[in-house]
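Researcher: Sit down with what I've pasted below and flag anything odd:
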Amino acid sequence: MTAAEGTDAGPVVSILVISYNTRDMTLDCLRSVVAETTVPHELVVLDNASPDGSAAAIAMAFPADTPGFRLIASPENLGFARGNNVAAREAKGDYILLLNPDTLVLDHAIDRLVAFAEARPEAGIWGGRTLNGDGTLNPGSVFGRVTLWSLFCRSSGLALIFRGSAFFNPEEMGAWDRGDERAVDVVQGSFFLIRRDLWERLGGFDATFVMYGEEQDLCLRARAAGARPRMTPEATIVHFHGASSRRAAREIMTLKARATMIRRHFPAWQRPLGLFLLGAWPWSRMVSGDLVARLSGRAHFAEAGRMWGDVWRARGEWREGYPPAA
């Protein structure tokens, strides 16, 4: 019996991979899962109608009779939230692991994360540490929730100036090197472990969040239900972040998700100020980028200012947030 086949009781963890237009990366990711995972598991891959032939390539590398493997070739792009919700319906494990297709599993990371979950069951949601493609730390595997204070620090530039301060940069949690276990507000969806019964109780992701913000919404709802997410540095993956989206487009979607979070999770009296501060963030980055470029003569500041200018001018696309899902 292979690890993927699990035991008579079924797999311990169901690994969900939602792919879009990252064919080669997805194949590398799936091979790393197979090579580095011994805990009984199943792999459920949903391809979001990728135009690069991802579904066909995955089906060739992992035929339909591969034990513990299921490919769902969606005829439409469901996005990340809806895609995971569909894939999760196939899950049979005690745990569900969300894994981005632009990742590589290192040193039995999934085994280690499941072991961490067994040791700290009260958390309900667990995350690990991620590295960039060059081996440097990618701190985005976990982060703090959006608050009025965090929005003020971002829009005023304090979070950028005092990046190493947990007080002025609370969303990035300051200079913490992710080298020790901690409770966290949010675990990023690229390497996100949750008990299947908790996932089902919460109804999975809210499909309102087409892209970004879905894991923050889920973590906040889980916390309201008694979960206390935690992170361990013992489970480490590589994440080639943003492989399938351009920078300006990614920032626009991020702001759209943040506007939705503010409208949904902030107290009513905080929402107008929160949305104002959210709008001030790209404006201040646009202005400061242009000013610093003029003073220093450095082209990359001008380029950043132009990018944030594009985001600011597109504010009609993001300031109202996502419309409620049907």
Notes: The first helix runs from residue 23 to 36. The chain has a mean pLDDT of 91. Residues 259 and 275 are 7 Å apart (CA to CA). DSSP finds twelve helices and twelve strands in the chain.
